[in-house]
Amino acid sequence: MIKENRASKYILYAIGEIILVVIGILIALQINTWNQKRLEREQEVKILSSLKKEYIDNLNQLNDKVFIRKKIIYSANQLIEIMDNQNLESQSIDSIETYIGTTTVFPTFNAISGVTNDILNSGKLHLIEDNELRISLSNWSGDVDQVTEMETALLNYYFNSYQPFLVENIQLRNSFNAMLSLANLTEKFNLNKSVENVKSIDGSKKIFEYESIFNNENFEDYLVTILTYSRVANIQCEGLKLKITNNLKRIDNALLNNNND
C-alpha cells in the first residue's frame, strides 16, 4: 500500500486495528471488573449473614442481662421499702431471703465478636458497602467496653464490699438457695442442673433474725448503690441494643439489595 502511494489507507487501517484492540482490552477489563464485583458481593453476603447471626446472639444475651438486672433492681427496691416502712414483721422470711439472694447476682455481658474481629483483622471491612455499618463495626469494641465497664465495677463492688458485709451480718445459705429457686431467673442462667444440686442441700438450721441488718444503715447504702449501678448498666445495655438493632436493619437492607442485583 505504501509502494502504491496508499499511505492514508494504511494509516486508517492501522488505526482501525488499534481501536479494535483497545475495545477488546476495555471489554476484557469491564468483564474482569464485573466478575470481581460479583465475587465481592458474594463475599459480602456471606459476611453479612454471619454478622447478622452474631448480632442476634449478642442481642439475645443483652436482653437476658437486662432481664436479670430488672430482678435485682426490683429486689433491692423491695428491701428498701421494707426498711423505709419498717414493716419487717409483715414479710415472710422466704421473701426476704429471696430478695437478698437476688441482689447477689451480677450478670456480665460477654460479647460474641468472632465475625466482627475477623472482618476487622483480615482487611475485609471494605467488602461492606454500607458506610454507616462499616463505622459501627469499627466502633464495636469501644461500645462493648462502655457496657462492661459498669458491670465490672458492680461485680468488684459485690466481691470487695457487699458480700463481706452480708457474710458478717446474715446466713447466706438460705438466701442463695432462695435466689436459685427462682425458675424464671435460673432459666436465664441455664443452671437447671446446678440448681437441682443446690436445692438438694438442706437450708441452714440456724434461726436468724433480720432486724439487725435492716437497722444497719450500711445495708441501705449497699442496696442503693447496687440499685443505681444496675440501672446505669441497663441503660448502657439498652444503648448497645439500639445500635445492634439499627445494624441488623442495615444488614437486612444490604442482603435484600444484593439479592435483587
Provide keyphrases for this structure.
10 helices, mainly alpha
What would your notes on this structure say?
The protein is mainly α and 261 residues long. Helix content is 79%, strand content 0%. It is built from ten helices and no strands. Helix 1 (7-85) packs antiparallel against helix 10 and helix 5 packs antiparallel against helix 10. It is rod-shaped. The model is unreliable at 186-200 (pLDDT under 50).
Determine the number of helices (DSSP H or I, runs of at least 4 residues): 10
Note the beta-strand portion: under 5%
Largest sheet: none
Low-pLDDT runs: 186-200
Radius of gyration: 32 Å
Shape: rod-shaped
What can be said about this structure in brief?
This protein has 261 residues and is mostly helical. Helix content is 79%, strand content 0%. The radius of gyration is 32 Å and the shape is rod-shaped.
Map the helices and strands.
Elements: H1 7-85, H2 93-102, H3 114-121, H4 131-138, H5 140-169, H6 172-180, H7 183-189, H8 192-199, H9 211-214, H10 217-260
Helix pairs in contact: 1-2, 1-3, 1-10, 2-6, 5-10
